[in-house]
Amino acid sequence: MDTILEIEGLTKVYPSGLTALDGVDLTIRRGEIFALLGPNGAGKTTLIGAVCGIVRATGGNIRAFGHDLRTDWRSARRRIGLVPQELGFDMFDTVERQVAYSRGLFGCAPNAARIEEVLRSLSLWDKRREQIRALSGGMKRRVLIAKALSHDPELLFLDEPTAGVDVELRRDMWRQIGVLREQGVTVILTTHYIEEAEEMADRVGVIDKGRLLLVDDKAAIMARLGRTEARFRLAQPLAAVPHSLCAYSLHLEDDGRTLVYRGGNGAGQGKAEVAAIAQALSREDIPFMALDQIESSLEDIFVNLVEDGVA
Ligand SMILES: Nc1ncnc2c1ncn2[C@@H]1O[C@H](COP(=O)(O)OP(=O)(O)OP(=O)(O)O)[C@@H](O)[C@H]1O
User: Whose CA is nearest to atom 2 of ligand 1?
Assistant: First the structure.
């Protein structure tokens, strides 16, 4: 595994006494898309800020590209890009100048061809001479990305890239992030939206109250924690769950007309049990008219994790 970022025991206590990060350990692999998922105030922006040199950590270590950020911040910093949550630029400046200026801020030599490439990849080329204030909200967000890409970062942070944007723009943003992945850029994004993590991430970290509750491959999270709910709508109501099925996690609803299964801790266990229950029902001569089956989403998993406070 080629590691691009290593965070160890990262702690941030703000002067107010609030602990925003509480011993966070995280390793990011080169080329992956990592989604940091958490509710408001979980510590996502603080974590990004600590890596990007905006927030001074209280404790812990951060190594990026093998450099210790405390002692060798500058060389690592050039290889990191940040798309912040807030729109912050000179609204009267043109798109092209803002993006070229950002490149210069990182000490990179002017490179008109590269700026053109970035602007074209974000469909901003036709807008390059427009003042930023004249752009739509979505276009302004693209300019933020263009600025962050202007110095060719290998590691890009996107802090809630789709907060407050409409569905179309969100999908557009997902496409853009797909393009970055193809270009080999490592992306860490923060989000409140489970569907965003589900759609794009290779791995997901769940953070709450400054603690990283869980980090895993997206598919593994689903497999480990995914639950299956199946509802058998019975032809005839039952007074009780048949004895032969009491090994399964079943109960009756709708005055005995619906047999409900909830269970299966991943790895297809839920689906296998539902199939076994269906077979047992037909063996017992208990016909059912319909079967509705639902797999839990990352959202359900997240709610459970946050409620439990543990991984
Ligand atoms: N400069 C600051 N001074 C004091 N407290 C702060 C500061 N910045 C953030 N906090 C607090 O630290 C905690 C974590 O905030 P942070 O912005 O990192 O969370 P977040 O997960 O990014 O939230 P959101 O999803 O709302 O952006 C919050 O309780 C927040 O109020």
Answer: 14
CATH number among 3.30.70, 2.160.20, 1.25.40, 2.60.120, domain 227-295: 3.30.70
In this predicted structure, what is the pLDDT of residue 311?
Answer: 43
Cβ-based neighbours of 130, under 8 Å, separated by 6 or more: 94, 95
**d(CA 13, ligand 1 centre) in Å:** 11
Query: What pTM, to 2 d.p., does this model score?
Result: 0.78
- Give the residues surrounding ligand 1 with Cβ less than 6 Å away: 14, 16, 18, 20, 38, 40-46
Buried b (16+ CB within 10 A) or exposed e, 248-259: bebebeeeebbb
Tell me the CA–centroid distance for residue 20 and ligand 1, in Å.
Answer: 7
pLDDT value, residue 262: 86
**How do the domains of the chain map onto residue ranges?**
3-223, 227-295
The DSSP output letter for 109 is P
Distance 21 CA to ligand 1 centre (A): 10
Tell me which CATH code domain 3-223 carries: 3.40.50.300
Q: Which value does ipTM take for this structure? A: 0.96
